C-alpha cells in the first residue's frame, strides 16, 4: 500500500519485528535513568519543604507513581503490538489530522520540561566550575554560558538518534543509583546519621490541613510522569514483547522513583539539620559544602542523569510530535532542534522559582491538559476499539480514521470538556478542588464524554 506523504516518514513508520529488540532490562533501566534526576529529587524535597514528614512524602510519591503506572501500561500496549509512536496512535481517536492537537499539547509540555532540565544542567555545570575554579563566580554571564553549553550537549545527543539514547540508559542507570546512595551516606553522616535526619515530624496540624496539601501534591506526582504516560508508545514500539515492556516498566518506575525520592527526602532533611532550614535545590545545597572532590563527583553524576532524562523523557516525544505536523519536512532530528529552541523560549528559570510554582503551578497545571488526552486515548483503544487498529489506515487519507476531513470532532469535544472542567477551579475559587484533582478530573470526564459521543462507532 502507498502511504500518504503528509502522514508518513521513516521516523513515524511502524517498527518491523526484527528491530524490536528492547527487553525487560532496557525498560527497567530506562525508568531508573529517567527517575534518577534533579527534578525527581526536587519533587521529594519540595514535599519536605512544604511540611510533610519523610513517611508522608515517600508515601505520596509511591502512591502517585503506582497510579500513573496504570495509564502508562495501557497506552504502552498499542506501541508494543503495532510498533507505532504516540502521534500515530492518537490518529485513531482524533483523526489523521486532528491528532496534531494532542500531539502539539504534549510537545509543548515536553519543551517546557526540556528547558527546565537544561537550565538545571547549566546550573550544575556552573556550580562545579565555581568549585574547581572559584574565579568563575566573578563572571555574571557564567550561568548563561553554562546553560548554552549544556543545551548544545543535549542537541548533540539528539542528533545521534534513538540508539544513542538506549546506550545512555544502559550504562547510566546503575552508575547513577550508586552515586545517589554515596551522596546519601555522606551527607547523613555529616548530619549525625538517619536518626536526626528522619526525626522531624509533619508540620500539619490535623487531617484537614494535611489533605489540603496532600491532594494537589498527589496530582503533581501523577502529573510528573503524565507526559510519558501519553508517549510511552514511542519507547514500547521497540519492545520484544508485551511482557518485556510491562514487566520492565512495573519493576523500574515505582521502585526507582521511590528510592531516589527517599534520597531527596533524606538529603533535604539533613540540610535542615545542618543549615537550619531545608534546601530543596540540590545544586544550591552542594554549593554550600567545602569538599571540592565530593561536590564535583556528585554534580557530575547529577549532570549525566539530567542529560539521560532530558533526552529520553523530553525529546523523543516532541520530536515525533513535531514531525507529525509535516512528515515530509520535519524529521526526528529537526523535531529535536525545534524542541530545543522552544524549550529556551519558555524561560524555564521562571518555572523553578520555588517548590510552590514547581509542584502546584507547573505540574498540577499541565496535568489538567494531559489527563484528558489520556482519557480519550485509553477509552478509544480499549473501550471503543477493543485494542484492534487498522494499521495501514493510520497512514492514509480517506481511511477508517478520516472522520470529518481528518478530524474526529467528538474527540476534540471530549478533550475540551475534560480540560475546561479540570482547570475551572483556577477561575472559580469555590471549585478549587477541581484544579487540585486536575489530572483525575480531566481523565475521567474526557474518557466518559468520548465513549458517550462515539456510541458504537468504530
Give a concise summary.
The chain is mostly helical.
Structure in words:
There is one protein chain. This protein is an all-alpha fold. It has 22 helices and no strands. The relative contact order is 0.20.
CATH fold-level assignment? Hydantoin permease
Order of helices and strands: HHHHHHHHHHHHHHHHHHHHHH
The main β sheet shows up as: none
Distance between the termini: 22 Å
| Helix-strand makeup class | mainly alpha
Pick out its properties.
single chain, 458 residues, mainly alpha, Hydantoin permease, 22 helices
Layout: helices, strands, pairs:
Blueprint: H1 24-35, H2 38-49, H3 54-82, H4 86-89, H5 91-94, H6 100-132, H7 142-159, H8 162-190, H9 194-197, H10 207-224, H11 226-231, H12 233-236, H13 242-275, H14 282-286, H15 292-314, H16 316-325, H17 332-345, H18 348-351, H19 355-384, H20 409-427, H21 432-436, H22 438-454
Amino acid at each position: 500500500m502507498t502511504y500518504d506523504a503528509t502522514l508518513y516518514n521513516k521516523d513515524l513508520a511502524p517498527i518491523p519485528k526484527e528491530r524490536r529488540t528492547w527487553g525487560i532490562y532496557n525498560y527497567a533501566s530506562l525508568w531508573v535513568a529517567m527517575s534518577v534526576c534533579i527534578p525527581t529529587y526536587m519533587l521529594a524535597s519540595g514535599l519536605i519543604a512544604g511540611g510533610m514528614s519523610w513517611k508522608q512524602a515517600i508515601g505520596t510519591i509511591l502512591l502517585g507513581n503506582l497510579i500513573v503506572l496504570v495509564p502508562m501500561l495501557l497506552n504502552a500496549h498499542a506501541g508494543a503490538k503495532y510498533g507505532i509512536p504516540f502521534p500515530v496512535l492518537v490518529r485513531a481517536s482524533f483523526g489523521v489530522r486532528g491528532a496534531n492537537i494532542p500531539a502539539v499539547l504534549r510537545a509543548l509540555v515536553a519543551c517546557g520540561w526540556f528547558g527546565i532540565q537544561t537550565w538545571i544542567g547549566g546550573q550544575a555545570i556552573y556550580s562545579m566550575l565555581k568549585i574547581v575554579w572559584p574565579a568563575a563566580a566573578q563572571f555574571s554571564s557564567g550561568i548563561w554560558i553554562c546553560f548554552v553549553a549544556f543545551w548544545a550537549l543535549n542537541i548533540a545527543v539528539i542528533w545521534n538518534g534513538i540508539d544513542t539514547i538506549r546506550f545512555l540508559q544502559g550504562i547510566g542507570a546503575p552508575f547513577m543509583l550508586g552515586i545517589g546512595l554515596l551522596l546519601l551516606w555522606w551527607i547523613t553522616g555529616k548530619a549525625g546519621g538517619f536518626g536526626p535526619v528522619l526525626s522531624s515530624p509533619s508540620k500539619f496540624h490535623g487531617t484537614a490541613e494535611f489533605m489540603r496539601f496532600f491532594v494537589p501534591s498527589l496530582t503533581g506526582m501523577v502529573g510528573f510522569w503524565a507526559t510519558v504516560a501519553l508517549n510511552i508508545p514511542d519507547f514500547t514500539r521497540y519492545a520484544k514483547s508485551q511482557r518485556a515492556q510491562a514487566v520492565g516498566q512495573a519493576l523500574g518506575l515505582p521502585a526507582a522513583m521511590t528510592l531516589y525520592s527517599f534520597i531527596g527526602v533524606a538529603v533535604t532533611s539533613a540540610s535542615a539539620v545542618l543549615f537550619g532550614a531545608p534546601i530543596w535545590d540540590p545544586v544550591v545545597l552542594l554549593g554550600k559544602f567545602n569538599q571540592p572532590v565530593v561536590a564535583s563527583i556528585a554534580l557530575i553524576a547529577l549532570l549525566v542523569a539530567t542529560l539521560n532524562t532530558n533526552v529520553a523523557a523530553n525529546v523523543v516525544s516532541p520530536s515525533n510530535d513535531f514531525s507529525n505536523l509535516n512528515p515530509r519536512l520535519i524529521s526526528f532530528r529537526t523535531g529535536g532542534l525545534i524542541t530545543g529552541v522552544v524549550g529556551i523560549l519558555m524561560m524555564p528559570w521562571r518555572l523553578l522559582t520555588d517548590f510552590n510554582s514547581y509542584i502546584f503551578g507547573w505540574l498540577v497545571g499541565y496535568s489538567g491538559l494531559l489527563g484528558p488526552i489520556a482519557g480519550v486515548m485509553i477509552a478509544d483503544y480499549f473501550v471503543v476499539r477493543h485494542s484492534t487498529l487498522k494499521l495501514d489506515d493510520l497512514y492514509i487519507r480517506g481511511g477508517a480514521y478520516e472522520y470529518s476531513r481528518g478530524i474526529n470532532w467528538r474527540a476534540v469535544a471530549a478533550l475540551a470538556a475534560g480540560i475546561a472542567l479540570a482547570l475551572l477551579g483556577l477561575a472559580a475559587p469555590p471549585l478549587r478542588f477541581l484544579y487540585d484533582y486536575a489530572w483525575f478530573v480531566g481523565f475521567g470526564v474526557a474518557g466518559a464524554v468520548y465513549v458517550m459521543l462515539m456510541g458504537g462507532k468504530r
